[in-house]
Design brief:
The complex is a heterodimer of chains A (about 180) and B (about 120). Chain A has about 180 residues and is α+β, with helices and mostly antiparallel strands. Chain A is built from six helices and six strands; from the N terminus they run H-E-E-H-H-E-E-H-E-E-H-H. The radius of gyration of chain A is 17 Å and the shape is globular. Chain B has about 120 residues and is of the alpha+beta class. In chain B, a hairpin with a 5-residue loop joins strand 4 and strand 5. Chains A and B meet through helix 1, helix 4, strand 6, helix 5 and helix 6 of A and strand 1, helix 1, helix 2, helix 3 and strand 3 of B. Strand 6 of chain A pairs parallel with strand 1 of chain B, so a sheet runs across the interface.
Chain lengths: ~180, ~120
């Protein structure tokens, strides 16, 4: 994957397929500590214990359309070749995937267009709620569709005009966060 | 902590409510962009972005956009499925920004199936 934000869609979609209705996505960048961390948490049905042991083996998958499952294997590879650690925990209450990277590692793919990732998840999956937290040097920005839907009331969050405006707001907020402006 | 302010959201809501009150919100077509690992790596997100831009620009509100899983035909990704009303769904293959633009303008808006991009035909 050319961008880490593409891995995030992939793992989040796994959770949605496991009937999750809430996805939590955290991107934490800590420059002094040289750490880049991604956390993707869902409240789906989880991964059976037997399968979890080998989940990052490309030949282990729950799908029936084809016999290989690359998603988690690719993220694990990406993280480990950048001096990071990959971890997955799962129970019948949901799954938590964590991948860390050395922030300045030459092979670390850029985060990329994270706003498009969030918008894509909102557009394509009607009915799920999503929280996106971006932490940059201990300061954070939180985007939660539950809060937004409450204010929007009868206007659907998937309306293209709403999405267009939310996109601009998230872009600006993350840009400000990175520049250290409150 | 930075957060979107309630006032910002209220403003969005007011703008959109005004515009949508006169529209017919019934969805007549369903477009599924397939987001398996293969589709994502091949550019499904860019296809989704272009599609949303086209929908916004054309100001149509009867198109439902969904994200789907892998179809099992990973080499032809990005795949997009278009279903208009009760017609048979059409699966398109190797889609990029330009192709989805053409599919949107011709198939979704005018009902002309773009057979040149279809996955298979007799």
């Amino acid at each position: 994957m050319r961008e880490l934000s593409l891995h995030i869609i992939d793992v989040a979609e796994n959770g949605i397929k496991a009937s999750a209705d809430f996805i939590y996505i955290e991107v934490a960048e800590d420059i002094p500590e040289n750490e880049f961390k991604i956390v993707i948490e869902d409240n789906g049905s989880g991964i059976p214990e037997e399968m979890l042991k080998n989940i990052t083996d490309p030949f282990v998958t729950s799908r029936t359309e084809r016999r290989v499952g690359m998603g988690l294997s690719l993220l694990k590879e990406a993280s480990e070749r950048c001096g990071g650690v990959f971890d997955i925990k799962s129970s019948d209450k949901g799954t938590i995937v964590t991948a860390t990277f050395l922030h300045d590692h030459i092979d670390r793919a850029p985060l990329g267009d994270m706003t498009s990732t969030i918008m894509t998840l909102i557009i394509g999956n009607h009915g799920i709620d999503l929280e996106y937290k971006h932490i940059f040097n201990k300061k954070d920005f939180i985007f939660n569709t539950k809060d937004i839907k409450e204010v929007l009331d009868e206007v659907p969050i998937t309306d293209p005009t709403v999405l267009g405006k939310l996109r601009t707001m998230v872009d600006e907020a993350v840009k400000k966060l990175k520049k250290g402006i409150d | 902590m930075a957060k979107l302010t309630i006032n910002d959201l209220k403003k969005i809501k007011e703008d959109v409510s005004k515009a949508t009150s006169v529209r017919n919100m019934e969805e007549t077509s369903v477009v599924t962009v397939h987001f398996g690992t293969c589709g994502i790596a091949a550019g499904a997100r860019d296809v989704m972005n272009t599609l949303m831009n086209e929908i916004t620009e054309a100001d149509v509100h009867d198109v439902k956009v969904l994200s789907g899983g892998c179809l099992g035909m990973c080499s032809s990704e990005p795949n997009v499925t278009v279903q208009i009303k009760q017609d048979e769904p059409i699966i398109y293959q190797n889609i990029d920004g330009n192709k989805i633009r053409q599919i949107f303008k011709r198939h979704i808006l005018k009902g002309e199936v773009q057979t040149e991009f279809a996955l298979a035909k007799k």
